[in-house]
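Late entry, evening session. Most of the bench is empty. Finally got around to the prediction I had been postponing all week. Sequence below, unchanged from the version circulated by S.P.
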Amino acid sequence: MLRGNTEAMIEGVLEANPENLESLKQETLQLARLVEDLRTLSLAEAGHLHLSTGATDLADIVRHVVDGFQTEAATRRVSLAVELPDGLPLVEADADRTAQVLANLGSLCVYVVHGLDGIDEISISGPTQISVLHNGEITTSTIEPSELGINRASMDDLKVGSPVDSAKMIRNVLAGKKGPARDAVLVNAAAAFCVGGKAEDLREGMELAAGSIDAGWAGKALKDLVRISNEK
């Protein structure tokens, strides 16, 4: 979609107005978030995820997160307010990751997934239980890899021994290499597309994820992320 719209603008088929440019921007940001989530997931599975823990004021984090939803709430004519008791103690936590978890709780669509082989993501080695919160309603189902058009694989195929191996696996996936790692990325990226309102179901989400990878946009997002990180 991103590539098609960009080419359409270049060819003059699609008008490069603020609305269409904003749509392209949001697609690019979503791809960047997808790549960053993939990097974080790989580090966590390898046991190398760094947490910047310290004395954290949860009240400040809650107020900050709620402030971030005020504009969206106003457009929906919803009033948001924070009521917290005084004197809450500081806790030992990673402030940024805690804020991200709280922000996710404010989403209009939420996927909670549990691979029945013991992982907290959509599994490619067995069934996955998926609970979806959408428009205030919760539905729960169990899905097999075959229902998404992929073959079962062992979780050993996704294990890495170091951050270097993790980076290599990610780059191979973004370069278009097929296999279990790509399948794992596609099914979990599909859930992100569903949560973001870009796909109606996991099948459609997988098509969008595959299109982004095969068109080179996901790889470009990773390169941009590395460049920006190195500039800081």
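Two things to note before I forget:
DSSP finds eight helices and five strands in the chain.
Residues 52-107 form one domain.
Will write this up properly tomorrow.
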